[in-house]
Amino acid sequence: MTSPAELAFDKAHELIDARDLDGLARLIGDLPTLVHAHGKNGNDLLGMATATCDERLCRLLLEHGADPAAANVHGWTALHQAGYAGLPPLVTMLLDAGAPVDVSARGDGGTPLVVALFWGHREAAEVLAARDPSPGNLRVAAGLGRADLLDSLIAPYGTLAPAAGAHREFYRPHSGFPDWRPSDDPAEIVDEALSWAARNDRSDAVRTLVARGAEVDAEVHRGTALAWAAAQGKAEVIGTLAELGASVNHQGTFGGLSHGAGVTALHLAVQGGHVAAVRALLAAGADPSLEDSLYSSSAVGWAEHFGQAEILSVLRAA
Questions:
Q1: CB pairs under 8 A, 24+ apart, for 28-36?
Q2: In sequence order, what are the beta bridge partners of 77?
Q3: What is the distance between the alpha carbons of residues 140 and 135, in angstroms, rounded to a whole number?
Q4: What whole-number distance in Å separates Cα of residue 21 and Cα of residue 39?
Q5: What keywords would UniProt list here (predicted)?
Q6: Helix axes 235-243, 186-199, angle to 10 degrees
Q7: DSSP code, position 179
Q8: Cα 197 to Cα 142: distance, rounded to the nearest angstrom
């Protein structure tokens, strides 16, 4: 039988999903302890509100005493979620409320900064890094484009400092990505960092890493550097990678097992609706007729499926 407290929590969740600020304010006014309650997987209302990307709801909950350090069973806090969504104003709000920046979720080193960098949210990442660049390993240095950190972690001839590969247990933000475990292999560490530089549009870091031994077409876990750049719509670094010899027609994996098999960077740019990235890939020689392995569909087919009218006209013109 569902308890009154559980019913109230479920009602609060419904109000958050509906973005009903007034309704949530009334409910919390009647039951102030709701801001400290936890539901499935240990999620609290602040975490749920952050997932809606609604600053009003988050501000309300914080004003009523919600704990910005509260975490679910995976260690995931509201600040992790704000980094995941790439929302600098919400990141700033949570930081100002006292949200911790050096806590890990889904593995050692999975700080809010790392989560933001994983998705290429460089603006949110820069806000977080200004408070604390933890864990400060090579993939963080690459994602932030920090030449000083890169120089301290990887020598001109590719030798790595011990900190370069430290705190890399985090490898996915949710279970949609398949199981994998990072290793201490120096090549893997450098190739992974290249991907993080690319997805954050850090051309200078990409050049540095390739010059110091990164394999431009390496696919460390679910995507090459070019695939990640395309998926995140980073047109400038696409040109840099192509100039450095990346195969624009490489067919590999990306994301979840039911999503990316035999996909090209062009498929991913199309799916994301990234017109500039599509143009950059076509200029570099991407072939729009190549089909992926799961759906046997070309980039044109993906554009039709995802309703990308502008991209469809660009592809047909090509």
A1: 28/60, 28/61, 28/64, 32/64, 32/65, 34/8, 34/9, 35/61, 35/64, 35/65, 35/66, 35/67, 36/65, 36/66, 36/67
A2: 71
A3: 7
A4: 20
A5: ANK repeat, Repeat
A6: 140
A7: P
A8: 5
* CA 118/CA 186 separation, integer angstroms: 20
> CA-to-CA distance for 135 and 128, rounded, in angstroms?
12
> SS3 of 119, please?
coil
CB atoms within 10 A of CB 173: 20
Q: Please compute, for residue 185, the number of CA atoms within 13 A of its CA located in the half-sphere on the CB side.
A: 9
Structure tokens at 55: 């600053």
CA triple 58-99-228, angle to 5 deg = 85
What is the C-alpha to C-alpha distance for residues 116 and 114, in angstroms, rounded to an integer?
5
Q: Which two tokens stand for residue 311?
A: 């991209």
Radius of gyration of the chain (CA): 21
> In residues, how long is the chain?
318
CA–CA distance, 229 with 122 (Å, rounded to integer): 13
Q: What is the rounded average pLDDT of the residues 303-307? A: 96
Mean pLDDT over the full length of the chain: 96
Burial class, 223, CB count within 10 angstroms (exposed 0-12 / middle 13-18 / buried 19+): buried
pLDDT over 90 at 150, yes or no? yes
Helix or strand (DSSP H, E) at 217: none
Range 154-157 contact pairs with CB under 8 angstroms and sequence separation of 24 or more: 154/190, 154/193, 154/208, 154/209, 154/212, 155/212, 156/211, 156/212, 157/212
Beta strands (DSSP E) in the chain are 252-254, 260-263
The overall pTM is greater than 0.70: yes
